[in-house]
Amino acid sequence: MNTFAPLAPGALGMVLVGSSVTVSRSLVHAPLFATQAVRYTAAALLLITFARAARVPILRPRGREWLWLAGIAATGLVLFNVAVVRGVAHAEPAVIAVAVASAPVLLGVLGPLLEGRPPTTRILVAAVVVVTGAVLVEGTGRTDAAGVAWAALALACEAAFTLLAVPVLRRHGPWGVSVHAVWLGASMLAVLTLFTEDPAALPALGPAQWAAAGYLAVMVTAVAFLLWYRTVAAVGAGRAGLLTGIAPLAAAAIGALSGGGMPGPPVWLGLVVVVAGLAAGLRAPRRGPVRKEPRPRKERSPASP
């Protein structure tokens, strides 16, 4: 069996997340909460439609599951978007991207602990290598104290998006977690819109902005969420967390293809480092040779010839 097959959905999901950096530039001047509320509402409707078409049952959360799912929505959807948008006002985008790319270190330590097992040295070393490569890809940028604070919040939210899903993935699966997290996030953003923004500003958005919001709703939310949680459920949060190093690579590549210029030597070096870290951390651990126990010798009875 191909040991990398369960990782493919998560890798593709991180490529889609990386593509959101370029796409989101079209929404810089759009109302933040209102646009994101529309995005996640559309994504929730799509997910529910897809689930019904695929005949996947969506279970109703119970007890503490509401807290875990609300935590995913509040951190991974609402606060993360606020941290990124507000952070780039105080820091270069590279600073925020490097912080988010450091998520494998947190996931490599906290993910296995939430799953009831200690983190492995191999995953921790690979996580450090992936983060080092991501830093080389994104470079370093100018920032102030507020920019550092927003970057740290973005990192925490990126890790929480995966870690808070671990306790509910077993019962709800990727479909259930995605549906509930997205509609809860849309509800939170709608409330924030009513208290902080003017929803009437939405009709003023241009075609390019609506196209960007549509792409984020379909590909970066509905599709990417399903792909990501499928991999987390299959291989665990610690191992899946290494795949977050793909997002800044995808962002750099897509930025270059969209007219941002060809990456320089440090970016290509970072690419090699990230690939090396991913290869080291994602490969299945080798199993030692199975030792055969010697068969017990059959004792002969005194009456035997």
Structural write-up:
By secondary structure, this protein is an all-alpha fold. 71% of the residues lie in helices and 0% in strands. The chain is globular, with a radius of gyration of 23 Å.
What characteristic shape results from the CA principal axes? globular
Kindly report how far apart the N and C termini lie. Answer: 52 Å
Sheet bearing the most strands, described? none
Mean pLDDT: 80
Unreliable residue stretches: 301-305
H/E element sequence: HHHHHHHHHHHH
**What is the tally of helical segments?**
12
Summarize the amount of helix as a percent range.
over 70%
Structural class designation: mainly alpha
**What is the percentage of strand-forming residues?**
under 5%
In short:
This protein has helices at about 10-25, 30-55, 65-85, 95-100, 105-115, 120-140, 145-165, 165-195, 205-235, 235-240, 245-260, 265-280. It is an all-alpha fold.
Topology (elements, then pairings):
Layout: H1 8-23, H2 32-53, H3 65-87, H4 93-101, H5 103-114, H6 121-138, H7 145-163, H8 166-196, H9 207-235, H10 237-241, H11 246-260, H12 265-282
Provide keyphrases for this structure.
305 residues, mainly alpha, disordered C terminus
